[in-house]
């Protein structure tokens, strides 16, 4: 998954204004207790992060 696709899905699910805030502040156990931003900075694949987001919150099946 490309990073642009990842962010498009984040914005579609959380909304334009909230997606980046959520990615910065919300700690996900499935990412080893990291936020989305931390996981991206540490080189975790966007697809793996998106899967962790989908497990954490109820993402519409069309976006999965």
UniProtKB/TrEMBL annotation:
<dbReference type="InterPro" id="IPR021408">
    <property type="entry name" value="DUF3046"/>
</dbReference>
<protein>
    <recommendedName>
        <fullName>DUF3046 domain-containing protein</fullName>
    </recommendedName>
</protein>
<dbReference type="Pfam" id="PF11248">
    <property type="entry name" value="DUF3046"/>
</dbReference>
């Amino acid at each position: 998954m490309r990073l642009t696709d990842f962010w498009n899905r984040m914005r579609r699910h959380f909304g334009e204004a909230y997606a980046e805030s959520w990615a910065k502040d919300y700690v996900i156990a499935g990412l080893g207790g990291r936020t989305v931003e931390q996981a991206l900075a540490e080189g975790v694949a966007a697809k793996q992060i998106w899967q962790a987001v989908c497990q954490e919150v109820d993402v519409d099946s069309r976006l999965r």
